[in-house]
Design brief:
Layout (H helix, E strand, L loop, with lengths): L4 H9 L9 H7 L5 E7 L7 H14 E12 L4 H5 L14 H11 L2 E10 L16 H17 L1 E9 L7
Parallel strand pairs: 1-2
Antiparallel strand pairs: 2-4, 3-4
Length: about 170
């Protein structure tokens, strides 16, 4: 499902089963426990909170036991994202911190919620001192630089990967 007709056309031209439409409406229309996986790439940051919660609740109910939900989104815990790419898209509703997404997924009923981080802004990172003969205090400075690099220029994207509970034993 995609709301962008050009994206749908490109995918269909490649032989993929993609349809033009709203993902939440589509999930409302499919039977419970009928899907094996749901993948959402750069969608959730465009949703108001109510729609995001509905998406998660529908995903839990429409996935088969042990089904997988994946949602990739910009990582606001890396401050370069907020100061650059995130604010350049006026259709973004709100940044979704990774810890918030774990909480929301667990609250919706997902289990085994994991985070995967991608694309650090390595070109911007401050260099550490790589000199074996450097004084001891350089290690402290390098640790501080590593923390600063992670906060300012860390992974620009993350994915939350969650599964539905397994089928109840009879």
């Amino acid at each position: 499902m995609d709301l962008d007709a050009d994206m749908v056309g490109d995918a269909v031209a490649r032989g993929l089963d993609v349809r033009l439409g709203d993902a939440i409406e589509y999930l409302r229309s499919v039977p419970e426990a009928s899907l094996g996986a749901i993948v959402s790439l750069h969608v959730i940051e465009h949703l108001e909170l109510g729609a995001l919660l509905e998406l998660l609740e529908l995903a839990v109910s429409r996935l088969k036991p042990g089904g997988v939900f994946v949602a990739e989104t910009p990582n606001p815990a890396s401050l370069i994202v907020l100061g650059n790419s995130y604010v350049l898209d006026p259709t973004h509703v709100r940044p979704l911190h990774p810890s918030l997404m774990v909480f929301l997924c667990e609250s919706a009923g997902f289990r085994d919620v994991n985070l995967r981080f991608f694309a650090p802004a390595a070109d911007y990172q401050l260099p550490v001192v790589d000199d074996p003969s450097a004084p001891d205090w350089v290690a402290t400075v390098n640790e501080a630089l590593a923390k600063l690099n992670e906060t300012l220029f860390g992974p620009q994207e993350y994915a939350v990967v969650a599964t539905t509970p397994p089928a109840a034993a009879c």
